[in-house]
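It would be a great kindness if you could assist me with a short task in structural biology. A protein sequence and the structure tokens that stand for its backbone fold form the material at issue. I should value your view on which stretches of the chain appear to form regular backbone elements. The record follows directly beneath this note.
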Amino acid sequence: MIEVGVTAIADHPELAANGKTSTLADLTAHFPIIEIDTSFYALPKLAVVQRWQQQVPLRCRFIIKASQYMTLHKVDPHVDVVAQFTALKRAVAPLVASKQLAAILFQLPPFFGVTPANSRYLDRVRELFPELPIAVELRNNGWYLPAYRQATLAQLRRLRMIHVVVDEPQTPAGSVPMVAEATHPDLTIMRLHGRNFAGWQEKSRQWRSQRTNYRYSPEALHELGQVARQLASRDVAVIFNNNGGGDAAANALAFIAQEQLHYTGLGPEQLDLF
């Protein structure tokens, strides 16, 4: 099954009942899976996760980003990283119990290259989360060079980790290629960042919004649909992360229509009565 979703709860005003800020209820009227990105900056409390559950139908599943300390984006001697793993495991326990946790997403930094220490860190992640579904997005293209690609995929399979297949512009600075390989029998995640070549190289303060400012054409969506259909896992989550210009929701809905996907058990759509 292909499940289509978006990332960033509040970034889709065209789906918002109030016409301004979208909510989980707004999003799960259309999509069966949602990526939570705020957990990268601050781990959610148990009560917050329980409130998320109250806003969505039982059909909805979540991808939760691991924190920036867990992914090694930030290293702080005052932050106990093992404690972060413990806190996140405690927080997502209700989602595990209700089978609403699709994966914990480890989006690793570009400087997380192919080294013995980094390979051991992936092993350590599995040790700390022995039972939870873990998805890995590698952002250093060294892992996919011909000399390392098969070993990279083999390690993910050995660790029962979900490979994140990315779509992003291929810049000279070392973008990660699309490697359409499944490493887990149950799930593969596609994260679609857009193809804004200039924005991907943006260095100003606006880099975050510029790099994902992109709308996929119907032709590109068709190509991505072909990739999703050939991935050898039971489920494929296609997550649109091209939020920079507000294009993610429209592209996600167009993708659902293109692939003739029909989801039951979603939340009610809000009707415009005015």
Q: What stands out?
A: The mean pLDDT is 92. Residues 2-258 form a domain with the TIM Barrel fold (CATH 3.20.20.410). The CA atoms of residues 29 and 173 lie 39 Å apart.
